[in-house]
Amino acid sequence: xVQLVESGGGLVQAGxxxxxxxxxxxxxxxxxxxxxxxxxxxKERVFVASITWSSGTTYYADSVKGRFTISxxxxxxxxxxxxxxxxxxxxxxxxxxxxxxxxxxYGYWGQGTQVTVSS
Length: 119
Prior knowledge:
With 119 residues, this protein is mainly β. It has strands at 3-7, 10-13, 18-25, 33-39, 46-52, 58-60, 68-73, 78-83, 92-99, 108-109, 113-118. Strands 2, 4, 5, 6, 9, 10 and 11 form a seven-stranded mixed sheet that branches. Strands 1-3-8-7 form a four-stranded antiparallel sheet, with no helix packed on it. Strand 7 and strand 8 form a beta hairpin. The chain is globular. The model has no long low-confidence stretch (mean pLDDT 96). It is 0% helix and 52% strand.
């Protein structure tokens, strides 16, 4: 059974940094890309960043460009989201997701991790 497990969320002040991790199991699970999404209570889940697993190509939402960096460690089957210069508007539950190929939507999701940024 495929599992994505996020970690690294927490409560920080504006301007601080956090790094989220998303570990995929089993280790034999192969996928095309991993992404990070976030959701504020009562609002839709929105795209934050993604990385193509084989090439390392990255994509970002405009709202986080220049502040967030997505990366991956292929040997650990783990993706990371380095978040710098956090703003109160970044407060949300952050989810990682995986997609098996370029033609399907993200079909595997983690349980989410809360990030709260105080002003």
